[in-house]
Amino acid sequence: MVQAQLESYISQHEGRFLDELMGWLRIPSISTLPEHAGDIRRAAEYAVEQLKRMGFEQAQVIATQGHPLVYGEWLKAPGQPTLLIYGHYDVQPVDPVELWESSPFEPSVRGDNLYCRGAADDKGQTMVVFKALEALMAVDGKLPINVRVLIEGEEEAGGESIEAYVRAYPERLKCDAAFICDSHMPSKELPALITGLRGIIYTEVEVRGAKRDLHSGSYGGVAPNPFHTLAVIITGLKDAQGHIHIPGLYDNIRPASEVEKNFWHDDPLHMNEMLLEEMGVREFTGEAEYPPLERIWGRPTVEVHGMVGGFTGEGAKTVIPAVAKAKISLRLPAGIRSDEAFALFERRVMELAPAGVEVIVHKVHGGEGVIVPVDAAPMQAAAAALKETYGKAPIFIREGGSIPIAALFYNLLGVPVVMMGFGLPDDNLHAPNEKYSLSQFYKGIRTVARFLQNMSHS
Amino acid sequence: MVQAQLESYISQHEGRFLDELMGWLRIPSISTLPEHAGDIRRAAEYAVEQLKRMGFEQAQVIATQGHPLVYGEWLKAPGQPTLLIYGHYDVQPVDPVELWESSPFEPSVRGDNLYCRGAADDKGQTMVVFKALEALMAVDGKLPINVRVLIEGEEEAGGESIEAYVRAYPERLKCDAAFICDSHMPSKELPALITGLRGIIYTEVEVRGAKRDLHSGSYGGVAPNPFHTLAVIITGLKDAQGHIHIPGLYDNIRPASEVEKNFWHDDPLHMNEMLLEEMGVREFTGEAEYPPLERIWGRPTVEVHGMVGGFTGEGAKTVIPAVAKAKISLRLPAGIRSDEAFALFERRVMELAPAGVEVIVHKVHGGEGVIVPVDAAPMQAAAAALKETYGKAPIFIREGGSIPIAALFYNLLGVPVVMMGFGLPDDNLHAPNEKYSLSQFYKGIRTVARFLQNMSHS
Which H or E element spans position A238? Predict the structure, then answer.
């Protein structure tokens, strides 16, 4: 009876659900760019409104040292477990903006996809949760379990404020399980639950050479060139075979289970092919002695994201810059602690730096990796929900990205963390033309509603 | 008599000379940025006005495929030699603009210096020539020799148009000597004439990896990262000891004279100390087996000027870019032809590129190096002028920068090329806070007037 009503309610309101998502997406809540502070605030308030309208209590914006958190709770199901639901309302920057086929902050529906920065990461997925909660409340007047919602605005900027909050007030977040809706499935036909994530350290390596910018004619041949130093450092950190040369970094990787190892090796779902297709390349880079799935899920990597300094405009300028920086991150499988990795990284960078320049390693942010057990009740409740809506049992896989809050919930709150998301590999996260599948959006709402029902003891 | 009148005229008009320079400097004629095309035109017309007011004939803007040339002639001294005078009215971009202490295009006098983009390179030095010509005309009603003036607007952008013009119409530029006022002296007390310049090739090395920007969480470990390829290429082109690994590049360097070798080795003027001071460093980089002066004047160098792509804003973005580029130039001592150097460079870059990425080497511009004989009459006339105004015979040195037009005049027009400029090493060419010494500006005017007088047979 409830199932039919739920289905009817969701079907009837799909259009409005999409409209409400679009309204949220139009707010350019880029957390790393200070000029968007006002948008961050508006996006937070938009989420509070969603919670208030559903009848959540304590729905509020919580000020932090950085961008605000959004919190709301519904705790009127005595005897039932409490689920802590996490999402984030901030988004990545949009450059290179010229590669977007439609304006980055004007949602555009093309085929089954909704294109907009944040469509998938993570406003779309957070809206899935909101609408599942709304539907359950609407048809039954209550939720099947107790729910706390905690949404941050700094996920793309290091997530320091939510970490400080969780560490300071764990009792306010008391729960039996956490649920993070910020991941993807291998395809629309292949539901998945995430059992592991890599941690991260994001750094800026700054090299200072001469006291001022120099003309390469007058000084080229005797001047320190910070870009050359950075090239030496970058090639010294990772070789052409993908091996990282940071002593100690590989030491503490938590061993994978035999099941996982076999999955990585055998690749029964032909995920390698999908990866190659998504990247548009014919071969993988990296450590040839590990299967590609292990390289992205179970091995560390070093990646350069950008180089700052000198002349990057059109045409020619023959400057040797006084200062240049490289934005370099490391992904860290569970077992490698991010603070230890940073120390090893910094030591190695200093060792690689030649004489005659000053090198400074800045830590921008860091977060831990995690591996969660698949046999916990909430994981099984989520798996059952996916089977009910997708007609197929989910696979248990890892993801190579980092959701540091997952490790924090797992380690600090001591609860199982369900990572179930409805993104797809071609969603262009962090890239131009980010999109979210509309069918996944609607199916996600149904699945999350089922998940909460399955969590109920009754 | 004429000397006294000349001195009186120059002294009397110094203030106006400076005002006229400032008027020219306020026009932001950046040749590499398309949005400044209108400024380029205005700066050219400003120069034409200068020539017209002095009574030059044929004073005009000459349209080209690129930015216009400025030409004017005064050929009423039968039996006297003809001097072709070169300058450029275009300037470098101004970034990083936040490091300028005064607005880059608002001239600011502080102490003996005039700060502005183009103050030294090359509007200030070209104005020195204009005002020397004006003074000679004013006090004598004529010039002591015949003069053609040819000024370009693409020196900072490759100078292709003037090269095409000189190649197409050498007869229009018929002369007995060329004079380029675009170099500097080691100090205000040490006049110098330039006998050699390095050539240049300026390139963009473009690396294409995946078909789109990728998230380093989802793909880091198996994705091609163009920045890593660029780092491999850069470290493969030049090692930490400053040795360039481009097979064949060192083969054709024209041998230096014993006099020059001794000067480089002995460094009698303590120029090494000056170089260290100007750079603000304690040690030189580069080929330890060559004296520093040889490294910048007589040896090739490879320098990276900027890296384009990925994320360079504040904070963090974990993108693996689909495409990244490095702006890389080579300086080439006389003997190494720029087109041959480009071919060798391109071959080496391709050899260094790993599998799995596409590498494209773009040539932005190129120009030849040159060594000119010191015993030609015009060189001696310039040397005498410097001795007269500075009270000291000039030294004959090379410069590490590139003025491709010098090689073209020398090789194509077949005339001696006098390179005499009044810049100083700390003029911050191509960098924030470019300046020109006012005392050098005024002394330069007197020196150039003397130079023209000394060129006269009478």
Answer: none
